Amino acid sequence: MNKNELIQYVTEYTGLKKKDVRAVLQSILQASTKALQKDEPVTMIGFGTFHPWKQTSRPARNPKTGEPVMLAPRTSVKFRAGLKLLKDLNK
């Protein structure tokens, strides 16, 4: 499911206007991004938690040339599924 499909689903489920659903979803994504940028986890009870984590620099290879390169350190995100999500997936 992509973002547009999610907006369409919520529109049909709630009866809200598509532009309103799009605005709410965008604000949720922006708030989540800001929290993760501050190294704060984003928890959605029953769904799961997004945790920021620091990746260190590491060696890698250019897949086209095979040339060794060093990847710069960066922040990434890990997701841990909530219990309700796991139960629903495994019914």
Key attributes of the depicted protein:
91 residues, alpha+beta, two-stranded antiparallel sheet
Give the strand content.
25-35%
- Helical residue percent band: 40-55%
Task: Count every beta strand, where a strand is a DSSP E run of 2 or more residues.
Answer: 5
| Main beta sheet strand tally, sense and closure | 3 strands, antiparallel
Give the count of helical stretches. 3
Distance between the termini: 20 Å
The side-by-side strand order for the widest beta sheet comes to 1-2-5
The helix/strand series, from N terminus to C terminus, equals HHEEEEEH
Topology, pairings included?
Elements: H1 3-14, H2 18-37, E1 42-44, E2 48-55, E3 58-61, E4 68-71, E5 74-81, H3 83-89
Antiparallel strand pairs: 1-2, 2-5, 3-4
Explain this structure to me?
A 3-stranded antiparallel β-sheet has the order 1-2-5. 0% of the residues are buried. The model has no long low-confidence stretch (mean pLDDT 96). α1 crosses α2 (18-37). The longest helix has 20 residues, at 18-37. It has helices at 3-14, 18-37, 83-89, and strands at residues 42-44, 48-55, 58-61, 68-71, 74-81. It is α+β, with helices and mostly antiparallel strands. The protein contains 3 helices and 5 strands.
Question: In short, what is this structure?
Answer:
With 91 residues, this protein is an alpha+beta fold.
